Amino acid sequence: MDEALFLTIDFGTQSVRVGLFDKRGHQVAMEKEEYTPPYFSRHPNYAEQNADTYVEYLAKASRRLIKNNPDYIGRIVGATLSCFRDTAVLLDKDKKPLRPCILWLDQRMAENAKPLPFFSRLAFRIVGMTDTVNFNRARCVANWIRENEPETWKKVDKYVGISTYFVYRLTGNLIDCASALAGHYPINMKKQAWYPNPMHHLKGQIFGIEERMLPDLVPSGTLFGTITHEAHELTGLPEGLKLYSAGSDKSCETLGLGVIDTTNAAISYGTASTVETTRDCYAVSEPFLPGYPSCVPGYYNMDIQVYRGYWMINWFLKEFGGRSDIPNLEGPSAADFDKKLPLVPPGCDGLVLQPYWGPPLSRPLAKGAIIGFSDSITQEHFYRAIVEGIGYALREGLEKFERKLHHRIPALRVSGGGSRSDEICQITADIFGKPVTRVQTYESSSLGAAIAGFLAAGEFNNLKEAVSAMVETQETFYPDAETHEKYNVLYENVYLKIYPHLKGIYREIKNFNFNEEKRLSAKEKDKNK
User: Fold this and answer.
1) Residue 519 reports pLDDT greater than 90
2) What does pTM read for this prediction?
3) Is the model's pLDDT at 327 over the cut of 70?
4) Is the pLDDT of residue 331 over 60?
5) Where are the domains of the chain?
6) Among the listed residues 82, 134, 141, the one whose alpha carbon sits nearest the alpha carbon of residue 106
7) Strand partners, 261
8) CATH class of 5-256
9) E strands along 249-394, which residues?
10) Is the pLDDT at 310 greater than 60, yes or no?
11) DSSP letters of 428-464?
């Protein structure tokens, strides 16, 4: 009898991948479509994309997969979907998008001129979370739309995650799971349910989303529905194919690395870089940052993110590495710079970078910082400092996990684009002082979605059995003791001290930028009168 296959749909920030996996974790087939462009910017620091554009790219990839693999179609027992996080779709009464999505990369901020109620502000002030709450409110798309596009906001019938919209387009059901909705939504992650009456709930009110606008939630591992005739006509996916709930791209990536307990942590070197581990009980990652439900039921992920992570590599290549925007005329690639990493000594001759090109929730005032420049610093130093800075930030996150868990996490597994580089994997091992292991595929988010899907379909008895069958460890990079000690000196005596020393200065920068934005806005309004 032919072995069962599972179909995975993996929406990333840069591309969508549609794959087929067997129960041994082998990638039987995979088709990929890169978005061109991945987003558009009407103003500096904006990042938007049409929700239906993603569906069109999915259709290209899925139709090609089906066409190229006709013998496999009858073996597919189900499908799962994983997706990037914190990107909302605003739907009208006909469930049509009212405007382009504002992506998680977007940097716009709501003004929130109307404060929260006095007692709410007092409660947050008592626990020292005023700056974090204000930052969270400012980053909420709902709050920004209400202020800046009131006519659009009046038409909003449903406010859903981008993954929810994809499920709707495939099954006709406006439904999702809590694992897919990490971000700015009024959701109780521990209970995997919306906050009751969120506009008046202490935490729920931060997000500015009315209860009537929210979709239904189901647990991970639940049947969302089946591929409709309309979706079949568009994508080529088999009509009636079962679509099961899984979770976010990062949760699936962690599962795809085989990280199902705290004996390992998962490092994702993607557009956003994260450190995650998995528990069978709920635990917050850091104050006001919840644990997230895993893509399999009964588990939770502790998660800390470097907001723009390996996006910084593309930023560096474009701004400083000679990468050209002219078609067919490109400068050096990341792989070219990776080969030069050994030419720069560990610690970059004292050049230290803190990678807050997008501030973390726990440090909403933070900006990116680089210290230690001298006339001997080269492009290669700058590139290595980015790699090391992201490593330092993720190590800081892992150490927060370890303090909460009251034990060390002895080993790491790594995925994402950065994990393709042997040099980056070795630097990671040296910074953390822990062995770093890759698994059989770089498409670990798709692999994790397949594991979650096979479990949901009853093809395995439990999570450990599924991971044992489907995840295969490959190369392991071991830390060099002397290099690790060098990194310890810079990490403890320089990196960890940058933010505390600069926090007041960051506040002044924030005030300056805020006043400048108000001045320019007033000037623009006067000009339009």
Assistant:
1) no
2) 0.93
3) no
4) no
5) 5-256
6) 141
7) none
8) alpha beta
9) 264-269, 273-279, 292-293, 300-306, 352-354, 369-371
10) yes
11) HHHHHTS-EEEES-S-HHHHHHHHHHHHHTTSSSSHH
